[in-house]
Design a protein that fits this description.
mainly alpha
């Protein structure tokens, strides 16, 4: 079944690789470097890919509640990494205003919804999900965004998701406080 899931994610994974090639042409390790550029089109495509990936996971809910997200290949790991580093690039370049608020809200909705599955088995994928949500929240911070992700997690009625989101919000608020001194 895990091989089947890799095949199901194959097209999305291929699109993600093409996107990363475009924005990270020198194939730098996104754990340590930002993509060369980040813009509205990148975030629009990340939002779309994440939504499509979430739809696949939800369609195969029982499978992903008992198997980690890696069972779909490295799609989730790589998209979390690209979202995280692209968010930091946007903040570094001080161009947050160029990304429509709706794209960020939709993207963070997906990052909250996928927590149910990333937290189910734990491990490194939870950290990558946390970094993607946390860096997106940090870089596009607004009270409206905080309330949006909080509302989304509460609507899930999934305690691990609610705790994950509150933990992420707390970490981001602490980081913002430290950096505003």
């Amino acid at each position: 079944m895990a091989r089947d899931m890799k095949r199901v994610f194959q097209d999305l994974h291929s699109e993600l690789h093409q996107l990363e090639k475009k924005y990270n042409p020198n194939n730098k390790n996104l754990h340590f470097y930002f993509p060369e550029k980040a813009d509205r089109n990148l975030f629009l495509k990340l939002q779309s890919l994440a939504q499509e990936g979430l739809a696949i996971v939800q369609k195969n809910r029982e499978f992903f509640l008992s198997n980690d997200l890696y069972a779909g290949g490295m799609f989730w790991y790589e998209i979390f990494l690209l979202i995280s580093s692209a968010s930091l690039k946007i903040k570094t370049d001080k161009i947050q205003q160029d990304i429509p608020k709706e794209i960020i809200f939709d993207l963070t909705d997906v990052l909250v919804d996928i927590v149910e599955y990333s937290a189910q088995t734990g491990g490194d994928i939870v950290k990558r999900n946390h970094e993607a949500l946390g860096n997106t929240l940090y870089c596009f911070y607004s009270n409206d965004l905080v309330e949006s992700i909080r509302k989304r997690s509460n609507e899930s009625q999934n305690q691990p998701t609610i705790e994950f989101v509150e933990w992420t919000i707390s970490r981001v608020k602490n980081l913002r406080q430290k950096n505003n001194r």
